Automatic annotation (TrEMBL):
Protein name: Membrane protein insertase YidC
Keyword annotations from UniProtKB, A to Z: Cell membrane, Chaperone, Membrane, Protein transport, Transmembrane, Transmembrane helix, Transport
Stated family: Belongs to the OXA1/ALB3/YidC family. Type 1 subfamily.
Subcellular location as annotated: Cell membrane; Membrane
InterPro entries: YidC/ALB3/OXA1/COX18, YidC/Oxa/ALB_C, YidC_ALB_C
The species this protein was found in: Subtercola boreus
Biological-process GO terms, alphabetical: protein insertion into membrane; protein transport
Amino acid sequence: MDISTFPPLALALDALYNLVLGIGTVVQPFAGGAAPVLAIALLTVLVRLALVPVSVSQVRAEVTRRRLAPAIAALRAKYAKKPEALQKALLRLYTSEKVSPLAGILPTLAQAPVLSAIYALFVHPQLAGHANLLLTQTFLGIPFGSNLFATLGAAVTAGFPPVLVSVALLVVLAVVVELTRRANLRWAGSALNAEAGAAADHVPGAAAVASIARFLPYITVLFAAIAPFAAAVYLVTSATWTLGERAVLRRVIRAA
């Protein structure tokens, strides 16, 4: 069963469909052939602007964690041989400081429905009973509904420029992901070390998990490679926005 045909979801997808087409129509006079991809990028910006309060909450939680780093280290030393007591003490500390464990992933959770909807927009030939015209749109020869592997398959007849565009998009995303990862490490610094140290002492395999976690952000790049091109554009725009937004908010909130 195709859940996109479920009336509430169909109406939501149709509304998003018309929004993307509308933005594309507005920017067409000055964007030309880039209007479809610019429409996706502008839609992403609108979504991220709506999520600014969530991002502010996340950065405030990060600032609090940095401030609590010495207290976390003290609790780690105090409950070195009592992992359960340590976890309870950390929970009490976070509760007293009003730090939510979910603060770090709220922006991702909030964006998930939008990304899912954009993915659905470019895989269904029919939406709300009408043809999906978005699937007819292209950017530099790349259909919005295709992914990198489809572009590679078409390279034999269509030539390599579309492939290069897709690969370049993934490279940009990988660079932004790495810059974001490094910025997060520099910012969190002592707070991450304190919490990671506590975990490493008491959780079997924590060191291995930490090593794997280094590569988890790159799952976004893998998803962008298999997702429709339009969804990849959304991911690149959102990741770039996150990198800049986080730098600004950290500076402003820390100075407040």
